[in-house]
Prior knowledge:
The chain is α/β, with parallel strands linked by helices.
Amino acid sequence: MPQPTTLKTADGRFGYEAAGDFTAPPLVFLHGIGGAARGWRGQIEAFGDRYHAIAWDMPGYGGSAPLAAVSIVTLADALQDFLQATGAAKPILVGHSIGGMIVQQWLTKHPDSAAAVVLAQTSPAFGKADGDWQKEFIGARLGPLDRGETMVSLAPSLVRELVGDDPDPAGMELARDCMAAVPEASYRASMLALLGFDQRGALKNIAVPTLVLSGTKDKNAPAPMMAKMATYIPSATYVELEGVGHLVNLERPKTFNAALDSFLRAHVAATRVTV
């Protein structure tokens, strides 16, 4: 299997990991709030033989520079800059959690620019910016930091709360490592960026092949909500994974890879780019 290489874009703005021939179709992975590019290594290795598999560090994470102002809109604009910087034309975008929100936002400006998208364990909306549930959600996650905890001290409990049944031990170790390494400022900014996000009205406009992927034990992006989300996307394929929590590619990497592979083989032609 191709081994991931850690890289930087020419302008130094973005850090990322990649494997595979750059003339192959780009398959781009976007991690969640507690993740990192290296959290996708199991997928980069598995798909690097057929695709140019790329995983970014979201701005403010890993090797990527932070943004002056963080919102889903500015992150989607950063994604476009990243795709241009890496030459990832007509990409297949795989967005997990906030990564899936970024993909949805990106599609509003670039509706025909993706070959396909995967919305994994994400949501089309976070609701009212000043809603009680939203305030409680953010408070529960940022409160421990306000009381003096650190990302290192919180990582084990945060990851444990996110996963479902019988998670892969190696995947959980990597999940904890990624979570512990997130800069506190970036974690706070990403959490606050969720407030007010709402792309429910745009779901009907997604015109590319779309995999909507959920886990039955996911409390952050519950399967019933994602199943409903899929009904509004004309081109959606909905897959629900039994016993899986919120970190599917790390909890059950083989299961995730199989679901992604099945979708890609059915909906995306792996045609190489002529250069």
